[in-house]
Amino acid sequence: MSLLPATEVADAVDSFMAASPVARSWDVETLVDWTAVDANRLTEGQVSAVRFITLIEDHLPGYFDIYHKHFPVDGEVDPAVFVHNRELYHFTIRWAAEEDTHARALTRYQVASGIAEREALWAELAEEGRKEFALPLDHPVQFFAYALVQEKATQMYYQHLRDVVDEPALKTVLTRLSRDEARHFTFMADVTSRYLRAYGDSMVEPIREVIAGFRMPLADTMRGYWRWALKIADVARYDHTEAYEHLIKVIDRAVDTKSDRQTELTRFIASCTSLPG
């Protein structure tokens, strides 16, 4: 299985950390005046969207476990693989902390605004959160290509939702979330690009498999996911295939001259984009 050299992973992690120093981070407690939030300024559909994205974000333990399973840092891997995985772990720890902050912010918003009672919300989150999150992937590059699309699609939905809500605190929360997702996307795009430069055409089929079977997180486990997704799409555009053009750009920019197989890959990805309508 082709792993990036640890030096490449370390360079990608260093770039991410330099672009997002801790000094520029935010925290739930001081983000907004939680006593002033008002769900009465939201439509029924917007409330539904907040509930939906809270469930998605709160499944963070399952998402983090994917990286722990596929890039373990324990005695079961040989030293060279450990070094690679340990460098990646620097990112996944920061990423997990930021995603957990997203979950806390959305949970806090629901409770402070009166959308949900705390204990009832905990029970709702536990019902979905206890379900295993799995990705039918095995090649290392696939975990970054998948997350590239997922993070960009999430970022774009938060921006779309922010643009239609008229509640200042929620606008602030969504702005912060979308900025974080944009930085996470940049890291995933950087690593995917490095795989393409290092291994060329051998990355085509693994990336193609990601798109051919792509599902957003919890699409196959959350009760009523597809019905709910259609409902929130009526509130603000929700279509993960919007992110495919960004994957195409990553492939286009990764190498100076694309091979025939890479060109066919970008055509395939473009063909998977939802038709307007």
Provide structural commentary.
The chain has 277 residues and is an all-alpha fold. It is 68% helix and 0% strand. It has helices spanning 6-19, 28-31, 44-58, 60-70, 79-113, 118-129, 140-164, 168-199, 204-212, 225-233, 244-254, 260-271.
Short précis:
The chain is mainly alpha-helical and 277 residues long.
Spans of at least 5 consecutive residues with low confidence: none
Averaging pLDDT over every residue, what do you get? 95
Beta-strand content: under 5%
Q: Which secondary-structure class do the elements indicate?
A: mainly alpha
Please trace the helix and strand order, writing H or E for each element.
HHHHHHHHHHHH
Question: What is the terminal-to-terminal distance?
Answer: 41 Å
Radius of gyration: 19 Å
The oligomeric state is: single chain
How many helices?
12
Largest sheet: none
- How much helicity do the residues have? 55-70%
Number of strands: 0
Shape: globular
Write the layout of secondary structure elements.
Elements: H1 6-19, H2 28-31, H3 44-58, H4 60-70, H5 79-113, H6 118-129, H7 140-164, H8 168-199, H9 204-212, H10 225-233, H11 244-254, H12 260-271
Helix pairs in contact: 1-5, 1-8, 3-5, 3-10, 4-5, 5-8, 7-8, 7-9, 8-11, 9-12, 11-12
Could you list some keywords that capture this structure?
277 residues, mainly alpha, 0% strand, globular
